[in-house]
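Z., the sequence and structure:
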Amino acid sequence: MLPTLTNPWMLAALAAVGLPVLIHFLTRARPRRIAFPPFKFLIEACAGQQAVHRLRTIILLTIRTLAILALVLLFARPFLKPSGLADNTDAARRAVLILDGSLSMRAVQRGMSLFARAQAEAADVLRALESGSEAAIILAGTTPRPLLPALSRNIPALHEHLLQAQPTFEQGDPAAALALARKLLGGGGTIYIFSDFQKSNWEAVQGLPTGTPCRLRPVTKEPVENVALTALRVAPAEPVAGEPVELICTVFNCTPRPRQETVRLELGDFTQESRVTVPPFGSADAAFNTSFSQPGPLTGKGTLAPDDLREDNTRYLSIRVNKALQALLISDADATDQRSAAFFVSRALTPSADAAPGLSVISRHSQDADRGVLETADVFILVPPAAISGEAVEIIERRVKGGARFVAFLDGPTAPLLVPAAFAPPFQLQRSVISEAGDPLMAGPRKLFSEADASDFSSLRFRRHYLNQVLAGRGGDVLLSYPDGSAALTLSSVGKGAAVFANLPLTPDAGDFIGHPMFPATLHELLRALRRGADEHAVTPGAAWTLDAPANGDSAVTVTDPEGRAVEAQIVASGRATRLALPNARLPGAYIARQADRIVATAVVNVDPRESDTRPIALENLKAGPGAAVTVVRDEEDLLLAGKNRPLWPELAASAAALLALEMLLLALWRRRTVNASRRSRRKEAQIPARDQSLVTSAATREELEEVTR
């Protein structure tokens, strides 16, 4: 802060500071010389009184001098000017207020939400702006939204928009909000930030704006007590009617102590509760097992007991229960050959009609795979020998990218034809190699089974395989590998679908895999892995998204949000399913697609789990750019004065009044003591015998002389 004067010419009045001293010397009483024989008694009587009188005079002169100095400075109107404004004269008259509108600002403490607290303090800043100031308000969410398109002098209208603002359910992006604030200011002005400064959002900020004063106002000093449901998933992600399904709820504890929480799951007719212990700042899973008897779309939710942040205590789930999973097995092997790889795969998948009620396998030769069967299959299984045509390859590629699954076994001379380049396999196929002793399998970075894969396959030996080289950065797709580094089993995402490449020979002369119990177990686990959900398909508030609804007739498909209001949807693709493009999701919950009053699809929007970690960032860790003036405002009074000139006249006026009052009090008390002492002396004189009156007269004379001397 730099001291500055409004009326510097008033400093000329500082010459008046010496007036009390001058008046004292000009009006001081002149002592008179009186010839008095017993002069030594006078000296003895006045010695102590003169010292006290001299002290009284010095104190009074000091008080009067300081009072005049305070009055002179009062009329000079000094104030403190923030040092950050020395090079930016527009900073006090141009301001952008950033309100954190992310989900975590919905937390309630002491009956008031953090956003409402920020709203009230931002309104105070608006009212305290100087006349003629320009201001703007930005609501920070996934995408920053200004309440008015530009800086405005219409402060009342801006204040009205501020009172109408509501927090979002989105994850905050403070870096984008700061960039927009800097753009609105154009380099001159002050940025006020009202936020809980959540670490998961603010640690991504590379630096505060350079050359722009920033006032950081934390809206809470207390930690937010929060326990949240951060995930709700089903395995397999596309269950079949009648098959066992596992539902897993993940609970996150954002408190410094362990928590016992009850998770309640509601899905269709299924309702169940589970108790889980969650460590401090850690997660724990609650698992539920069930099955669904009827096919069709289902929506449900998991819930926790309410806490400071209620919005993340509920998580929604949408699944489609299929009547049966249709697998298309393509191979050119003779259907009657019981030693072919296609025969072993078919029997491992469906040993009998009753063994796998949720799976239907259709076998076709390459030339017999027509468009009809290719468009209806859920899983494509290619077993050598096979040589699919160009049209079939195009259909399979389109279907897999749209959500279907693909499995290719690589063995024999036709193996290179079963690796479509459009699927971006994680390896480069080279040549076939033979091992007489047989090569074992080694576990890769990714696991197929929940237990250790290496021990499950340790007894198996393979006498041939395709030598390949795993591509850089794709090692995470490898489930099993050979000792020479070649990938034996990989699983990769392809668009909305997935692809498996099995570099495993499936004939008796190439190994003992087909006769081992691990063979059917591996095939079925691969099908389950292909149907597992992926977090990348999760939709969060503030994000644009699409919804696929099965086509059934020509009637229009309508979509409603969790509050039952219609959502504007645009058709972007048609076919077996209609793909609808939806605007940025506003609310978490279930979105329902209907066609002729019949539910054809469901989807859910969930809050971003990163918003559930309410721990704040240390403000000293926020990086300020070169030349940035950053102030952390801890209380409301400092907030209103931040970036402003601070007047000092109230303190000076109070000081002058206090000094003058002290002078009057000192004069009154000191004079009263002198008069009272004289009266007590006279009363004592009346009580002295006549023979001692001469001594009293001498004492009285001494007092009168003292007064004369003064």
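The longest helix spans residues 39-76. The two ends are 49 Å apart (CA to CA).

Let me know what you think.
H.
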